[in-house]
Write a sequence for this structure.
């Protein structure tokens, strides 16, 4: 038996809702009082702090109509320990060496580039460095690291280039293939002797026409010897 905190009657435990399934703890008021309270209580109308739309407040501390409005509002408000300007935020997370400015903040695991988040603004740290100390990045251009260090944010080591130039300067297999002047058999990669093909993933590969012709002739000769 348990006494209800609202009606004051002694009722069996089966007349109380379970509050915690792990401990078996039950609510302080019975099911009848709970249903009466739920049907008669009217939620007050309040104004959302973000979208300025009326909503039914579920608790006295609620200030937003949805979680989306809460996230949008908090993204636009710098935290108390945040620097007052984006430039101060950037400088606090830079470790200057003799040559490079290494980013000490968050980094992206896939490519190793630094990332930043400040007052709802997000992006790459090296692009932010170029915009803060040099100027806007031209449209359709990307930032290339001349020092080949992904975490470097030294403006002197950053250069806006096209995506094709950026890939050609890298060390990926397509970049190395673009720098080759001849194939492994010594045939020059001239426009007349080079075939370009793209696979399903969008990777561009170059192939020597002379080598391809030699393989075709060898295959046909082998078939001719096998089936005279």
């Amino acid at each position: 038996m348990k006494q209800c905190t609202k009606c004051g009657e002694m009722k069996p435990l089966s007349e109380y809702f379970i509050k915690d399934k792990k401990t078996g703890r039950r609510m302080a008021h019975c099911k009848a009082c709970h249903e009466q309270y739920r049907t008669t209580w009217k939620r007050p109308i309040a104004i959302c702090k973000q979208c300025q739309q009326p909503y039914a407040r579920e608790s006295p501390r609620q200030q937003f109509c949805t979680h989306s409005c809460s996230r949008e509002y908090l993204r636009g408000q710098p935290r108390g320990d945040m620097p007052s300007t984006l430039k101060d935020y950037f400088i606090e997370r830079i470790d200057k060496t003799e040559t490079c400015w290494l980013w000490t903040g968050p980094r992206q695991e896939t490519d190793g580039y630094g990332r930043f988040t400040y007052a709802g603004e997000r992006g790459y740290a090296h692009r932010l460095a170029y915009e803060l100390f040099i100027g806007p990045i031209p449209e359709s251009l990307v930032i290339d690291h001349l020092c080949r260090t992904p975490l470097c944010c030294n403006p002197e080591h950053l250069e806006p280039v096209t995506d094709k130039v950026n890939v050609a300067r890298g060390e990926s297999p397509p970049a190395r293939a673009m720098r080759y002047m001849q194939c492994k058999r010594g045939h020059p990669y001239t426009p007349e002797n080079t075939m370009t093909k793209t696979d399903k993933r969008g990777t561009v590969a170059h192939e020597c026409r002379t080598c391809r012709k030699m393989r075709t002739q060898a295959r046909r000769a082998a078939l001719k010897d096998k089936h005279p």
Remarks:
- The chain has a mean pLDDT of 83.
